Amino acid sequence: MSGGSLSNEVNKRRTFAIISHPDAGKTTITEKVLLHGQRLQKAGTVKGKKSGQHAKSDWMEMEKERGISVTTSVMQFPYRDALVNLLDTPGHEDFSEDTYRTLTAVDSCLMVIDGAKGVEDRTIKLMEVTRLRDTPIITFMNKLDRDIRDPLELLDEVESVLNIMCAPITWPIGSGKNFKGVYHLMNDETILYKTGQGHRIQDRDIIKGLDNPELDARIGDYAADLREQIELVKGASNEFDKELFLAGELTPVYFGTALGNFGVDHMLDGLVQWAPTPLPRETDEGKQVSATMPTFSGFVFKIQANMDPKHRDRVAFMRIVSGKYEKGMKMHQVRIGKDVRIADALTFLAGDREHVEEAYPGDIIGLHNHGTIQIGDTFTAGEKFKFSGIPNFAPELFRRIRLKDPLKQKQLLKGLVQLSEEGAVQVFRPLANNDLIVGAVGVLQFDVVVHRLKSEYNVDAVYESINVATARWVSSNDERKLDEFRRKAEQNLALDGGDNLTYIAPTMVNLNLATERYPDIEFHHTREH
Ligand code: G4P
Known about the structure:
Blueprint: H1 6-12, E1 13-20, H2 26-36, H3 59-71, E2 74-79, E3 82-87, H4 96-103, E4 108-114, H5 121-131, E5 137-142, H6 151-162, E6 165-168, E7 170-173, E8 181-184, E9 189-192, E10 205-208, H7 213-219, H8 221-236, H9 242-246, E11 250-255, H10 264-274, E12 281-282, E13 288-289, E14 297-305, E15 314-322, E16 325-326, E17 329-333, E18 338-342, E19 346-349, E20 352-355, E21 358-359, E22 364-369, E23 378-380, E24 391-393, E25 397-403, H11 409-422, E26 426-430, E27 437-440, H12 444-457, E28 461-465, E29 470-475, H13 479-488, E30 493-496, E31 501-505, H14 508-517, E32 522-524, E33 526-528
Parallel strand pairs: 1-3, 1-4, 4-5, 5-11, 6-11
Antiparallel strand pairs: 2-3, 7-8, 8-9, 9-10, 12-13, 14-15, 14-23, 15-22, 16-21, 17-18, 17-23, 19-20, 24-33, 25-27, 25-28, 26-27, 26-30, 29-31, 29-32, 30-31
Helix pairs in contact: 7-8, 11-12
The chain binds guanosine-5',3'-tetraphosphate (G4P).
């Protein structure tokens, strides 16, 4: 990476993640995007062939999935004049918390939709999350080499179900066996599709102008159909508007096939042209920290263990918000009030771990973590403040965890607290007894925890069912009321891994009654780190 002025470096960067329903083509698109970024000689090495569906509690599969998402956690590549950071999100919905937090570290998202299926559940959920910050969305309608649904109907569905306006940038000509290519509405050119080119960067076969007779010569009757359709589309759909896009209210839509590596580059052109350069982030005091602020700052949005199986280390992923990271620089870890010197931050160039000399806003760096870094931690090299907005979600599944060997209580607690700091799971210690309750958003998290307790903390633990329906973090502006609540509701109160007071409800009815009975107490569904 060459050093430039801060604003030059900021202007070059685009940091995004892909949101999609499983099987829509996220992995395939990632491969092709990297191919275009020329980070991979030949696309197809992001992940090996899938070995069928994941057995729900098959640890080996999990380990594989983790191993895979680890090497591709963050990928940086050049595209045209830009430097693009693509952040991977776990595929399995049981790790959705991780995904939510990763979405706080990007400035835009690519939404991939299977053209034969349209808008699916997971996409709806993830779009809700992007709404929290009005993240700009680019849409890719995938699998045009198969018979897809009527494109206009697909756009309608996106608009009505996801409540975002669509502005088609390209328009497909046929699909499945008859997929001929796309017409680029803004450039007034047709780009023709050729099969069997999925593994290479193709020269674009372009026909300028919709009325060009060459179009009829090349695609026959499809040309006349296309002209008719484009007239219709222009009348029926929105024109691209950059302001609305940046406000998260309108999405440019591209059509193509990731597998055939067709259309991915059109989408990338749009991304580097329109997607925001690294955006400001807000502090817990409501101040905006812009990317061009000269002093360094950043926040940790993810901690991942076992990056390197040989070292069993843990890496904290930090999004740089402002200023410049230089190897060996000193920064302040705000939560613990300590200065640290960072000499060996990592970057992840298409799976390789490389030591970085410098990094800029929008970039992600990996810090070696020996247990002192938590999700949500802010690091600054200047003024001290704390970034806000990195959520913990109230778990929906609960189990009591018990040791096989009761003498290892201390290790168990240590392990659980560390795993909860990583966001792998949440742990609750009731005020009224010595139970340890593990809370998760997805059931696979339970398996991960038991496996890691064994391999990293040498603790054998088992689960027992427990009668808990939900948990809420509680707070109050009135200390006295909070004390009273603590006394009266002690049977239902616990401390989480970070010692935050939590209400543990055996049923939803119980929770509702408690919120009515204690109007001065706030019950929170999410907790900010
Ligand atoms: P995901 O990460 O979103 O879960 O999706 P992934 O890229 O793994 O794609 C899911 C399946 O869809 C894969 O097939 C992949 O080859 C296929 N696919 C992706 N893009 C396209 C496309 O443009 N056209 C067609 N026809 N298929 C596409 P699979 O058989 O499940 O896996 P594999 O054995 O090919 O790896």
